Amino acid sequence: MFGKDERERMLGIARSAIESAFTGESTTIPETDIYRGAFVTLHKNNTLRGCIGYLEGVAPLYRQIFLLSREAAFNDYRFPPLEKEELPLISIEISVLTVPERITDLNDFHLGKDGIIMSLGPRRAVFLPQVADETGWNKSQMLTALSRKAGLPPDAWHNPEAVFMTFQAEVFSESDM
Question: Which tens digits make up the pLDDT trace of 37-73?
């Protein structure tokens, strides 16, 4: 979907967003009319260090990547804010999403290909498609973990009121370039 130059541009915007938060320098963000859901994931020594995203495009894609990069670095509640000394140790991964589609049968959820969103009442959780490969979970384990991530009992995914949506993602990282 995106060519190498565009992927490099998005990764450059992401890195620049984080670096400029420390330096105070301004960052030029190219204009685009693409609105897509996206996540920015930070890894440090191959371990998750931050991940923030939107399931739908809320701003032009490059601007959204800029904002998400800063959020992942400084506002992911699971981690302390990134420190300047960590910058050389951080690897950035970007996931650009397709529009989520509702499924009524979990057989329509394909592990490793699809990301999944589960909603039950006011609770919601999401896993990107690459989570299955990164964790080695089977479908049942992934849905159990998704239930827990939503703050629900581990078997909540069996609840007939649970709503599921799937999506795909184009995933690329600095280590790919």
Answer: 999 999 999 899 999 999 999 999 999 999 999 999 9
Q: Which of 106, 95, 103 is nearest to 139 (CA)?
A: 106
pTM: 0.93
3-state secondary structure the chain: CCCHHHHHHHHHHHHHHHHHHHHCCCCCCCCCCCCCCEEEEEEECCEEEEEEEECCCCCCHHHHHHHHHHHHHHCCCCCCCCCHHHHHHEEEEEEEECCCEEECCHHHCCCCCCEEEEEECCEEEEECCHHHHHHCCCHHHHHHHHHHHCCCCCCHHHCCCCEEEEECEEEEEHHHC
139: nearest Cα among 164, 170, 169, 102:
164
Q: pLDDT below 70 — which residues of the chain? A: none
